[in-house]
Amino acid sequence: VYIAPEVTLGFTSFKSDSALAADFKIGQVGAGGRVGFGKLIVPFVYAHIGYGWSKDMDWGGMVIDGGGGLDLSLKFVKVGIHVGYNRMKDKDTDVKFGWMEFGAHVYLEL
Predict the structure, then answer these.
(1) Which is nearest to 39 in space by CA: 69, 6, 78?
(2) pTM (global) more than 0.70
């Protein structure tokens, strides 16, 4: 079992295929952690809380995320895949926005 604190910084672009909606980007910073089990093949879960913003939409407020994945753990490097759900709430309008993410990642362990 391992528990790892994490600091996050991320940017996500959303492309619209509708003439009624514009493309926009969201940035986010936060902190949280992950818990994993295993040595070579490591399933894990993660969660973070922080601040998100979109200058395109003039939004800003709390953002949370959570998900899970699978890593291949080699000495000081982990490579893997993950899936997660993100939710952002604008501090001024109470508009809520959520999205799924799927991806690959590489971590260097110090």
Answers:
(1) 78
(2) yes
